[in-house]
Amino acid sequence: MNIRRLSTQDKQFDADLKALLAFETAQDDSVDIVVANILKDVKVRGDVAVLEYTNRFDKTSASNLADLEISKSELTAALNSLPANQREALRAAADRVRSYHEKQVMQSWTYNEPDGTLLGQQVTSLDRVGLYVPGGKAAYPSSVLMNAIPAKVAGVSELIMVVPTPNGEKNALVLAAAAISGVDRVFCIGGAQAVGALAYGTDTVPQVDKIVGPGNAYVAAAKRRVFGVVGIDMVAGPSEILVICDGKTNPDWIAMDLFSQAEHDELAQSILLSPDAVFLNKVAESMHKLVQEMPRKDIINTSITDRGALILVKNLDEAAEICNFIAPEHLELSVENPLEMAKKIKHAGAIFMGRDTCEALGDYCAGPNHVLPTSRTARFSSPLGVYDFQKRSSLIMVSTEGAQKLGKIASTLACGEGLQAHARSAEYRLK
Question: How far is CA 384 from CA 22, 101, 151, 372, 390, in A?
């Protein structure tokens, strides 16, 4: 494992950091062409196209799309089939995720002006949401909980889940998570064809208002293309973790925290900032030692070598400044006073504070959402939450008295913009 070492004292540090963070987010043209054709086909031929692509790509042999829907009784059976410890862990995680997200629910509000005019906002939930869940080897029940539970807490009436089942292989944990989360319907379809079915609707799969959930390059490209027809959560990049440590945490712990993201895939990014050069050396030693124990050591090695770094900083204040530039998906503050340091952090998807707070707890059961902005988008984006499944309508009820004041203002501005019908509409209400 070749771990990149940087120091903020190096003259070329800024350039080196930008090079380290650089990631080509543009989709592969060949992928985009394939996806465009699939979406066009699904839009025109509906069920027939979705069925053809599903049978071809997932090596299934369904005769109609309805056969690929999983009944609620099968979801319940999957939950009951789990070993007791898995079932209890899923329920415990779901309860914590639900409890956290219930605090995010936005409320409608109004206020009255002295002349009787009423202003405010009305909060309503989306009617129907589509949840994409990876299938086959990449089976993530935690992703079901994190996407489905906030939607249900928000009041979404119908949640449609799609999950590919290559060779007909269904993952019991994923189906069990759907049962616990209150998913309404589940279809064994995936890829761009599933995104198209959710976006445009078919005879069997109802059209949704928003599509959430992770997927491969084809799914990401499809979500980009259907945005505008439906809403999407985000187009996520590779997983990231930034650890800021004062040098007083067990170096094995920090090494494994860096590995926890590196093991996702070769493009994941793991970075450690510390003002303690000796500690950085200890972490490097721990990484070389511990990687040999990892089943996914080849992926970890590639990720750390290609995109990881151990960075020596002058002090923790400088570390906070660098963090705000990086705007990481996951940030661990493994320092003496993490609450105080967190006040200096402006840009991060999720902030894990204290030596005992490893990022992995957030992935599964801490409560906050693990769907987070990547690739520096935490500068302007937030974690997935109930907010993503609610929307706001402005409320305006102008009194007769209020119309006299507002009408004159509106008329003056409308005339200035050359919009006479706007002005006349307001003027009609003037006494």
Answer: 24, 10, 10, 6, 12
What is the reported pLDDT for 142? 96
Residues 35-53: pLDDT tens digits?
Answer: 999 999 999 999 999 999 9
Class of domain 237-379 as given by CATH: alpha beta
Number of helices followed by number of strands (H, E) in the chain: 17, 15
Domain limits of the chain?
A: 29-111+126-232, 237-379, 398-427
The CATH number assigned to the domain with range 29-111+126-232 reads 3.40.50.1980
Q: Which residues pair with 211 in a beta bridge?
A: 130, 232
Going by their DSSP bridges, the two strands 69-70 and 109-112 should be labelled as unpaired
Tokens representing 375 are 């690739």
Q: How many Cβ atoms are within 10 Å of 146's Cβ, its own excluded? A: 30
**Radius of gyration, CA atoms only, the chain:** 25
69 is catalytic: no
Give the per-residue pLDDT at 1.
Answer: 84
Q: Does 29-111+126-232 match 237-379 in CATH topology? A: yes
Planar angle of CA 367, 370, 372, nearest 5 degrees: 135
Look at the chain and count its residues: 431
Among residues 101, 264, 330, 370, the one annotated as catalytic is: 330
Quick one: pLDDT at residue 28?
Answer: 75
Q: Give the mean pLDDT of the chain.
A: 96
Band of residue 27 on the pLDDT scale cut at 50, 70, 90: low
Q: What percent of the chain has pLDDT over 70?
A: 98
Question: Which 8-state DSSP code applies to residue 213?
Answer: -
Query: Any catalytic annotation for residue 370?
Result: no
Lowest mean pLDDT among 190-199, 210-219, 395-404: 210-219
Out of 240, 263, 264, 329, pick the active-site residue.
Answer: 329
Amino acid at 124: T
CA–CA distance, 372 with 384 (Å, rounded to integer): 6
CB 312 within 8 A of CB 274: yes
Q: Which amino acid is at 36?
A: A
Give the span between the Cα atoms of 364 and 366, in whole angstroms: 7
